[in-house]
Amino acid sequence: MTATAEMTKNLTQPELQAAFYDLDEHDHPEGGSTMLGFWMYLMSDCLIFAMLFAAYGVLGGSFAAGPGPKDLFDLKLIALNTAMLLFSSITYGFAMLAMEKDNRGGTQLWLLVTALFGAAFLFIELYEFSHLIHEGATPMRSGFLTAFFSLVGTHGLHVTFGLIWLFTLVVQIGKKGLIPANKRRLMCLSLFWHFLDVIWIGVFTFVYLMGML
Amino acid sequence: MSDHVHPNHHLDDDHGSHGSLRDYVIGFILSVILTAIPFWLVMTGAIADKSTTALVIMAFAAVQIVVHMIYFLHMNTKSENGWTVMALIFTIVILVITLSGSLWVMYHLNHNMMPMTSHEMGQLP
User: Fold this and answer.
1) For A3-15, how does the pLDDT look when each residue is reduced to its tens digit (9 = 90+)?
2) Which end of chain B has the least Cβ crowding within 10 Å, N or C?
């Protein structure tokens, strides 16, 4: 008889089970780890953008005799776009402050103001894209344009989904009020929204400003 | 801090602070300044040397990202017992490896490709 078998003989069945996994039920409050989990998601999202930035860095100079950044970009438009996103960041901050004061109407109002700025950002971006495509600078034109549309388009897609999420929350707050679950959702969206602004800093610096140098 | 804080206290500690109005306003003003200067530099060409301008605007971007992290994302070393910062550091390490690695390798690839004569090009399959 081996040593292990001798040991197991003296143990009762529940003790044996407990040796392999934790049977202790501890308290896991609902949403207790949501914020950390959401942060992990944001970090992985950050890596997606890192790949797209890397692709742009590698392909950014491959114009295939097509138009380059200086022929295509309009910095005034980008400055306006950046301002929209920055304004939406601070208005979201105001929504969070209203939430902390349990001010339901104020939260909804500031969320809608944020949505307005976010929508303006998207509108300007789509205008820019349609302008580029109209000029023949489509994603198929060159490696530079493929990388450009992938990077900026992915960011724009994130903003779009952020907006959908934002409207959903406005409706949810309207229906259920500022319950803990809604507050948690608002905090997640807050992280998401400000994170998109951080990514945009990288985009306007590396793509637009450095492209125009 | 002990590992087994009561879950509810834990929740309150971490999510009680979302920054004050003052934080948001300071962050916003700093962001406006840190955005306006690079745009102004590039649009007016205030610095004649292009690589200097590039370095300056990259520095402004880095500072602005930190400002956003502190004033808008309310990052601090204590939230979630330090795990958010750990995740952030890990991400930054991977990010630096990915970006610098890709640029380095692809730059060398382009440079070290054997030059081809037009005759050789004609023989490509």
Assistant:
1) 555 555 566 665 5
2) C
Mean pLDDT of chain A: 90
Q: Which residue has the tokens 């959903």?
A: A168
H-only helix segments in chain A:
3-9, 13-20, 34-59, 69-72, 75-100, 104-134, 143-176, 180-202, 210-212
For A201, which residue in chain B has the nearest alpha carbon? B61
Whether A133 contacts A189, CB under 8 Å: no
Q: What is the mean pLDDT of residues A42-63?
A: 94
Q: How far is CA A7 from CA A3, A14, A19, A20, in A?
A: 6, 14, 12, 15
Q: Who has greater pLDDT, B53 or B109?
A: B53
3-state secondary structure of A116: helix
Q: By the 8 A CB rule, do A111 and A93 touch? A: no
Among chain A residues, the shortest Cα distance to B83 is held by A36
The answer to whether residues A108 and A174 touch, using CB atoms and an 8 Å cutoff, is yes
Q: What CA–CA distance (Å, rounded) separates B34 from A201?
A: 10
ipTM for the complex shown: 0.83
Residues of chain B positioned with their CB less than 8 A from the CB of A89: 28, 31, 68, 72
Is B35 in Cβ contact with A82 (below 8 Å)? yes
Report how far residue A23's alpha carbon sits from residue A7's, in angstroms, rounded to the nearest whole number. Answer: 21
Are B107 and B67 spatial neighbours (Cβ–Cβ below 8 Å)? no
**A43 within 8 A of B80, measured Cβ to Cβ:** no
Q: Does residue B69 contact residue B75 with C-beta atoms inside 8 Å?
A: yes
Per-residue pLDDT band at A61 (split at 50, 70, 90)? confident
Sequence-separated (6 or more) residues with CB below 8 Å from residue A158: A45, A192, A196, A199
Interface with chain B: mutation pick from A103, A121, A198, highest number of B CBs within 10 Å: A198
Neighbours of B52 (CB within 10 A): 11
